[in-house]
């Protein structure tokens, strides 16, 4: 790896149209898992001007069984969708939680998929699809997440908190951030460029001699304050390039400004481009789908390797075939920073966690309604608690050290 370089990551807010779709899809996942811990869900969401559309495959005791909806189930789904949009804060003419048109095209899971996934007789539960999944950890931040992505998320989280708490009058839900950091000797040392584009209340812009310069100055000063509050002292210098709403006016945003679809922000969801991504999205999927659960366990294992001091950076790849329980391969790369041979880690890690879909679900307690919170500001680099983010724990450290001693 190069010792000195520039690297950039971006994040998007909970009000970004694709993130609205992700949160709706995961609200449906949580609703079904709250009814049936072994429900099957693959829910895709489309958001656009005053419209939300659901589609996908489902199976859930007491909600959708044998091709029929339980009484009141569809109304409950619609209520969960509208509550999600209301929580995000959309009450605009072009997208309002109470007024958008809603369509539900969810239908029963294919029997041909179910026969490969379901546990039966001597057959273990199989993977819900084929695919490759990656996990990554780095010692750049306390959460063992790449610094560029970590600060991109924190900028938008603070702005969202200030919007919900009405700290300033001009913030609307849709926003993006981007952070470029200079690395020296592989360590991030300063910001060379910071970008925020945020949807705003009418009039808070100034561009090509149009708008209100005083209002725009208030918005820009606020964003500058967020930059200074989030980034480490000294990271912002006189040479840092700052861009706040560089296109000028941003009053039309969210699904009214651009359509949103589940699963289009997978790099924001994971490592900001600092590590590979297998291609599969997370949101809208129950934990039998290894796109989600195996990516979570790969992060869990990589984070524990770094937390144990066995490497400063670690990438793990897992691969699966649909209907087959055991992974086809386990690959570890410590990028020249490891103190233990990668081949040894490849032997040890599957002994600490059984890497079948069922083994992953049970170890990380994934059969619970814990997913809507994951759908904005990253699935990783979060604080584990009683209600989720178990894959962020570092509880394998002692066992891992003992295993490679």
Short description:
This protein is of the alpha+beta class. It is 32% helix and 25% strand.
Task: Give an account of the 3D structure.
The chain is of the alpha+beta class and 405 residues long. 32% of the residues lie in helices and 25% in strands. It contains 11 helices and 17 strands. It has helices at 17-35, 73-88, 111-117, 147-164, 213-230, 254-257, 266-269, 290-307, 342-352, 357-364, 397-404; strands at residues 5-12, 40-48, 51-59, 64-65, 68-69, 91-92, 95-96, 101-108, 131-138, 171-184, 187-200, 206-207, 210-211, 241-244, 260-261, 313-320, 329-333. The strands form 6 sheets. Strands 1-10-11-14 form a 4-stranded mixed beta sheet, with helices on one face. It has a 4-stranded mixed beta sheet with strand order 8-3-2-15. Strands 9-16-17 form a 3-stranded antiparallel beta sheet. The radius of gyration is 22 Å and the shape is flat. The two termini are 27 Å apart.
Average pLDDT metric: 95
Q: Spans with pLDDT under 50 lasting ≥5 residues?
A: none
Distance N terminus to C terminus? Answer: 27 Å
Q: What is the count of DSSP helices, taking H or I runs of 4+ residues?
A: 11
Describe how the helices and strands are arranged.
Elements lengths: L4 E8 L4 H19 L4 E9 L2 E9 L4 E2 L2 E2 L3 H16 L2 E2 L2 E2 L4 E8 L2 H7 L13 E8 L8 H18 L6 E14 L2 E14 L5 E2 L2 E2 L1 H18 L10 E4 L9 H4 L2 E2 L4 H4 L20 H18 L5 E8 L8 E5 L8 H11 L4 H8 L32 H8 L1
Parallel strand pairs: 3-8, 11-14
Antiparallel strand pairs: 1-10, 2-3, 2-15, 4-5, 6-7, 9-16, 10-11, 12-13, 16-17
